[in-house]
Amino acid sequence: MIIVKIGGSVLSNKRKEFSFRGDVVKRIAYEISRFYPEEKFIVVHGGGSFGHPLARKFRIREGLKGYGSRHGFIVTHLAMLELASKVTKCFLENTLPAFPISSSSIFVTKEGKIVASSLLTVKEALSKDFIPLLFGDVSFDTSKGIEIVSGDEIILHLAKEFRPEKVIFLMDVDGIYDRFPGGKLIERLTSKEIESMSLSGSSGIDVTGGIKKKLEVARELVRYTNEVWFVNGLVKDRLSMAIVGNGIGTVVQS
């Protein structure tokens, strides 16, 4: 089994609200179709310009604070359902039976971390040769009332349960660089190297912001999978090459 994360910056233009790169998602679906059904897949996608602007607007991460936050919680969820529907249709056009599963219905969080889940639907979908399609979403939270459950948090939880062969993150750049922009692409990393970066900050690699979070997730993921790939989802065949275990990108191993 392979878990594929379609980053929000791949399926949409984050600078333009509710933009959707249908041509890109259809091509990603086509690349997956080359390997399905011999290979099982779970697909998780980010919020892109659908979920993130609304989550900020309604301050979802600040928790439950009356009717306004309840309203925003629902509106944000509806936007993610709309995005999931668009992704699903792109997969169907490539004869892939992707089945959207609402993350807020199967995960409960505490401070944004999953503390309870019901994965029977995912397991049943896999056993019947569907491709479960999950997504970053709002969540009911035991500490704050409401929160966001990110695509990366979902992938980590799924990896612990299903122990995939590999996890592939589709990004809008070629992988992890020693600095960005203008740096050198790092082709291979180990979990120990990532740990030393996080502790010392002196590795020559810029481990700030979103990339730092991605590397921390990768370091955790390799406890449950053989390898984690970061590849450019906007470039044709990069996903296919990662699936077979080679190509341009960054691979993290234990």
How does this model look, in words?
It is built from ten helices and 14 strands. α2 crosses α4 (about 65-90). It is an alpha/beta fold and about 250 residues long. Mean pLDDT is about 95; it is low at about 200-210. It has two domains: about 1-165, Acetylglutamate kinase-like (Carbamate kinase), CATH 3.40.1160; about 175-254, no CATH class. The protein has helices at about 10, 20-35, 50-55, 65-90, 105, 120-125, 150-160, 190-200, 210-220, 240-245; strands spanning about 1-5, 40-45, 100, 105-110, 115, 130-135, 135-140, 145-150, 165-170, 175, 185, 190, 225-230, 250-254.
Number of helix segments?
10
CATH superfamily of the largest domain, called what? Acetylglutamate kinase-like
Q: What is the CATH first-level class name of the largest domain?
A: Alpha Beta
- What is the beta-strand fraction? 15-25%
Using the alpha-carbon principal axes, give the shape.
globular
The helix/strand series, from N terminus to C terminus, equals: EHHEHHEHEEHEEEHEEEEHHEHE
Distance N terminus to C terminus?
18 Å
Helix content: 40-55%
Low-confidence segments, ≥5 residues, pLDDT <50?
Answer: 199-208
The structure class reads alpha/beta
Q: What is the CATH-assigned architecture of the largest domain?
A: 3-Layer(aba) Sandwich
Number of domains: 2
Looking at CATH, which topology of the largest domain would you report? Answer: Carbamate kinase
Largest sheet: 8 strands, mixed
Radius of gyration: 17 Å
**How confident overall, as mean pLDDT?**
94
- As laid out across the biggest beta sheet, the strand order is 3-6-2-1-9-13-14-12
Q: What's the β-strand tally? A: 14
